[in-house]
Specification:
The chain is an alpha+beta fold and about 190 residues long. It has helices at about 5-40, 175-180, and strands spanning about 65-75, 80-85, 90, 95-105, 110-120, 130-135, 140, 145-155, 165-175.
């Protein structure tokens, strides 16, 4: 039990807790929107929109070819092997395209991952429509197992003609601790 003489200790603990809560709030309330505004202003980190793509009747533009490059990265500390099955595709705007990324969990325990996409050049992001993507959901994977993670996309016919190459990059993060007990023990 605290005594009256412990009041400075209580004040110090209260101040430290307040500082920790303020730091947490600053990161999630201020830094994330600030990061998004900065990226938009500088034209970097071309995040794909969170909006779903509504298919419209369109012809495939076979007179034009766009090169799509695929890159996979692991966040620091993520032990999975993660890579695209193909690193380059030539596609026609308006056509539905598909590929897979390969993931392998070399650890003995089940883990959950989340992939975060980025499109470059950033102004191409609004013309790159993912109709199916492993990045839409967290990806659980049993220990010492592997999976093919599907991606289907359409490059919009309205893509500016000066953009001939689009790079789609994914960084995969370990979110096992964030989902906690929800990790599937199959």
């Amino acid at each position: 039990m605290f005594r009256l003489s412990d009041k400075p200790v209580i004040n110090t603990v209260a101040n430290l807790v307040t500082v920790a809560v303020c730091m947490f709030a600053f990161v999630f309330v201020v830094m994330v929107p600030l990061y998004n505004v900065l990226c938009d202003a500088l034209g970097i980190n071309g995040k794909t929109s969170g909006q779903s793509y509504t298919a419209v009747q369109a012809q495939v533009d076979e007179s034009r070819t766009v090169t799509i490059q695929f890159i996979a990265n692991n966040n620091e500390g993520m032990p999975w092997e993660f890579a695209p099955s193909t690193t380059v595709m030539k596609v026609h705007p308006g056509a539905v395209n598909g590929t897979v990324f390969l993931a392998r969990n070399p650890m003995p325990n089940a883990m959950v991952a989340q992939a975060i996409p980025s499109v470059s050049p950033s102004r191409a992001a609004q013309y790159f429509h993912k109709t199916e993507c492993f990045c839409f959901n967290q990806q659980p994977l049993d220990g010492e197992s592997e999976a093919e993670l599907p991606l289907q996309f359409i490059v919009d016919q309205d893509l500016p003609r000066d953009i001939g190459t689009i790079t789609l990059s994914y960084t995969i993060f370990d979110v096992t601790d964030m989902v906690g007990a929800a990790v599937v023990a199959r």
